[in-house]
Design goal:
32% helix, globular, Phosphatase 2c, domain 1, alpha+beta, single chain
């Protein structure tokens, strides 16, 4: 497993009464997670916490796995969290409608796996270039893909919060999986839509290329979202690969 360092922060933002985001930093296990709860009064923060707690449990005794083993752990995290959230709603009907989006980044050997559901995002930054690894599971993203609206129009669209796939809503859950090699100095950003709804990719890249530490970069990203009027919770997690062994 590569040696990595990380920093993360979650901010309630300017408009929400509570924070429904959760995140995990376990660089020693090569594990990073961001989950964004949905449901408001329907306990979105419970859903996101169930996901992060499940990830910690599934990865608790494992490190330096093979490709297939890591994939299985990522898939098991999403499967089990989905099951647990659904069970929670059955036992607590007043929480009907809760769920979460989720990003899970797991390293093994000299590679990584990303598990993705919803409209939180995972970005990859190498040699000064930012790339969005994940595709939003949202109505707006479908409209962008069809050429019906532009990305700038999507940022303020009235339907931007309609999610087409989330954890804990349906019995069956399809998880996007991304696998690739990691190299020293690679930088990964996991974030909730509270960041990306307010800060465009060009501005994110500008922060990541700056000669700042991970903590300063995370603080700057959250500051940009709040300066833009953040109406949602904001969570950003940065992870840097230091070496391939």
């Amino acid at each position: 497993m590569p040696k990595i360092i990380s920093f993360g922060k979650s901010d309630i933002g300017l408009k929400r009464p509570n924070n429904e985001d959760s995140y995990v930093l376990k660089p020693e296990k090569g594990l990073l997670v961001v989950a964004d709860g949905m449901g408001g009064a329907a306990a979105g923060e419970v859903a996101s916490q169930i996901f992060t707690e499940t990830a910690l449990e599934v990865f608790s005794d494992v490190a330096g796995q093979s490709d297939q083993e890591t994939l299985q752990l990522v898939q098991e995290t999403f499967r089990l969290a989905n099951e647990r959230i659904l069970n929670h709603v059955r036992e607590n009907p007043h929480h009907q409608g809760m769920g979460c989006t989720a990003e899970l980044l797991a390293f093994f050997n000299q590679s990584y796996v990303v598990g993705h559901v919803g409209d939180s995002r995972t970005y990859f930054f190498r040699e000064g270039q930012l790339k969005q690894l994940t595709r939003d599971h949202s109505l707006i993203q479908d409209q962008i893909d069809q050429g019906l609206i532009s990305r700038s129009e999507a940022r303020r669209h009235s339907l931007r919060n309609i999610i087409l796939r989330s954890v804990g809503v349906n019995e069956r859950l399809a998880v996007d999986l991304i696998r690739a090699k990691s190299l020293p100095d690679d930088l990964f950003l996991l974030c909730s839509d509270g960041l990306t709804d307010m800060v465009d990719d060009a501005s994110i890249q500008e922060v990541l290329v700056a000669p700042l530490g991970l903590e300063q970069k995370v603080e700057k990203l959250i500051e940009l979202a709040k300066s833009a009027g953040s109406y949602d919770n904001i969570t950003a997690v940065l992870c840097q690969v230091l070496s391939s062994k």
